[in-house]
Amino acid sequence: MAGETTPDALAVSYRGVTKRYPGQDEPAVRDLSLEVGAGEICVLVGPSGCGKTTAMRMANRTVEMTDGDILIGGTSVRDREPSHLRRETGYVIQQIGLFPHRTIGQNMATVPSLLGWDSDRVDRRVDELLALTGLEPEMRDRYPAQLSGGQQQRVGVARALACDPPVMLMDEPFGAIDPINRERLQNEFLRLQASIRKTVLFVTHDIDEAIKMGDRIAILKQGGVLAQYATPAELLMAPADDFVEDFVGADRALKRLALLRVSDVDLWEAPLAFIGQASAEVRAKLEDAEVPHPLLVDSERRPLGWLSERDLARDTVPERPDSSPEPRIEADDILRDALADLLQAETQYAPVVDGRGRVAGVLSVEVISDFLASPEAKVEEHAAVDRPYGDG
Ligand SMILES: Nc1ncnc2c1ncn2[C@@H]1O[C@H](COP(=O)(O)OP(=O)(O)O)[C@@H](O)[C@H]1O
Ligand SMILES: [Mg+2]
């Protein structure tokens, strides 16, 4: 769908870029150089005031640089009309900035209309954008205030994507959203990005978000100085200096979990039980099982719940087990989120299901800690970073 109409994403290159705001003694961004590959997400992260927004906005000349150059697809932004540049770089901000008196459809159509597309083409594009960002077709005629914060943010992303910009600029796009919806939007965006493959400059002050979203992370410190530019795994394993180490935090081991999918670890095998099966048979399976509880599944091996001692006291396995199979974890969930689900549910084990809802194994806190302690953890990390969004 998107793949057919998307022009190739373009690489972005910062070459010794400096910004001095008038009347400021110190530059806001100092001699910044970094290369962002086409189709990559580069996250600019650092404490407030360190120059992230300034650095990002120089790419579409909504802030003019003082020195140095930025190339998009090999062409200097200085050689392009600022008004064109702004239209060609999809821009998403925290406050979303939707027009309150225009419908969702009209909001999404802002740039196509400015570019003078005919109304059929605009309509078709709005349909595509609704589908792309997972919004129901009837949202089209609603107004921003009728949508939740998360839905509005999706409209913000859709609007920025309207003209298939080769580069997206996202300034703390999920910063104002509650943690649960933020996680959902992050996942949605990563899923979307796996198909649209834009070059994205993404600003955040949240290192966890940076690790989750970034193919590469630029950590800036006060005065707009680049402290390290590296992949998330490199950053976590080899912080360049004390500033980076502090900023990344003491719980680096846990953060590594953000780089992995549940399917990257060796899951335990659940002793499976089927409805109507003899309980004695199930008990026999438990004897040398890694998980001490049988998991009841339907004929498609979809989990129905855990069987208790009381369930097993009957001759045959009942249809309705004592406890539910929640939380159910998906094999392509981020490992850190899966751990959070386990801890939140105060449960020791959770069934992991594949894309069709069938049991792929069992995750436990122990599985995760064993994994972190194993030497393969580091190797897996690199593998996960090479295909960061697990679409392969
Ligand atoms: N328009 C401006 N005029 C003067 N100083 C500015 C302007 N915008 C930002 N600054 C200063 O530049 C520095 C970097 O700001 P900013 O890029 O917004 O940082 P961040 O996005 O990392 O919080 C800050 O010291 C800020 O006060
Ligand atoms: Mg900012």
Description:
The protein contains 17 helices and 16 strands. The protein has 392 residues and is α/β, with parallel strands linked by helices. The protein has two domains: 2-250, P-loop containing nucleotide triphosphate hydrolases (Rossmann fold), CATH 3.40.50.300; 263-386, Roll (CBS-domain), CATH 3.10.580. The strands form four sheets. It has a six-stranded mixed β-sheet. The structure holds adenosine-5'-diphosphate (ADP) and magnesium ion.
Q: Total helix count?
A: 17
- Binned, the helix content reads 25-40%
Cα radius of gyration in angstroms: 24 Å
What name goes with the CATH superfamily of the largest domain?
Answer: P-loop containing nucleotide triphosphate hydrolases
What is the structural class?
A: alpha/beta
Give every kind of bound small molecule, once each.
adenosine-5'-diphosphate, magnesium ion
* CATH level 1 name of the largest domain: Alpha Beta
Strand content: 15-25%
Number of domains: 2
Mean pLDDT: 87
Strand order of the largest sheet: 6-7-8-3-9-10
Provide the low-confidence segments as ranges.
1-6, 378-392
CATH architecture classification of the largest domain: 3-Layer(aba) Sandwich
- Report the count of strand segments: 16
Distance N terminus to C terminus? 18 Å
- State the CATH topology of the largest domain: Rossmann fold
Largest sheet: 6 strands, mixed
What shape does the CA trace take?
Answer: globular
